[in-house]
Amino acid sequence: MNDPETHVVEEQLVRVPAGPTTLEGNLTLPEEARAVVLFAHGSGSSRHSSRNRHVAGLLNEAKLATLLIDLLTPHEEVIDARTALLRFDIDLLAERLVDVTDWLAQFPDTKQLRIVYFGASTGAAAALVAAAARSDVVDAVVSRGGRPDLAGAALTRVRAPTLLIVGGNDSQVIELNRAAFVQLRCEKQLVIVPGATHLFEEPGALDEVARLARDWYHRHLDA
Fold first, then answer.
1. Which residues pair with 69 in a beta bridge?
2. pTM confidence score
3. Any idea which architecture 12-222 has in CATH?
């Protein structure tokens, strides 16, 4: 995935209004980017997650812009760290993801780019709910170790081509993804990465996730 001729500009800190709150994110815009990948974290993760930053860096090399954004405010993160409730508030996370999507469509540096989603854990459910709400804008969705089952009735309304990636040793999440996969009415694929656990911490596992995501995005951006 390395391209020595690809120049990646420095990431910039952005502040995105979302209802009464403001969310902070890191936006990276490679030259000749055709789309921006909006990351939706979940389950106590953040835009500083080494796993998501690793995937984002590989996508940048493939000439995809990335926006890693925290869908919870710092105060909400403190509450969630104590209660673990907000990370499962899919409606709240999806609503904020829609707000960020609308911002990307208007922000001068990104308004010319197509928009795709990358969701992890409960963030994947939020990404699918938001994709259903913005079916005219979101061109593709990738879920890594996600909980698409938590998207509920929104699954049948998703129109964006959706790729579900699950670790081969993450047996419970595999079954949850299979159940959600049946409900999806869009173009879809379920890929199980052999030997990987829920966090894809095994050598090469995240690189495989990034490769699968890159290929999925490019295929549907070219369609």
1. 25, 40
2. 0.93
3. 3-Layer(aba) Sandwich (3.40)
